[in-house]
Design the sequence.
């Protein structure tokens, strides 16, 4: 199947989706190395674009906070459903 992009908007949507998938993989790799991360949306992209070495017309899709979690940080309890309700084995 081929993908035909007909507008700049279509290309931007593709770029946003691809960026999100790349960030997800980066966050998994960060965790594998013992660090924590937090994706942040709603940032001030105009101020971020003023950082050195960024192009003026850069589209900022996401910001990742990366570091070590504090031992007394706020965490929510993990809730797990019964595995048999979500995992289907096909033989």
Sequence:
């Amino acid at each position: 199947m081929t993908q035909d992009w007909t507008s700049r908007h279509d290309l931007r949507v593709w770029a946003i989706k691809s960026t999100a998938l790349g960030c997800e993989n980066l966050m998994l790799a960060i965790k594998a190395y013992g660090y924590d991360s937090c994706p942040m949306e709603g940032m001030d992209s105009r101020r971020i674009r003023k950082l050195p070495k960024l192009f003026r017309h850069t589209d900022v899709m996401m910001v990742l906070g990366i570091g070590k979690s504090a031992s007394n940080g706020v965490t929510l309890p993990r809730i797990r459903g019964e595995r048999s309700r979500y995992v289907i084995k096909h033989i």
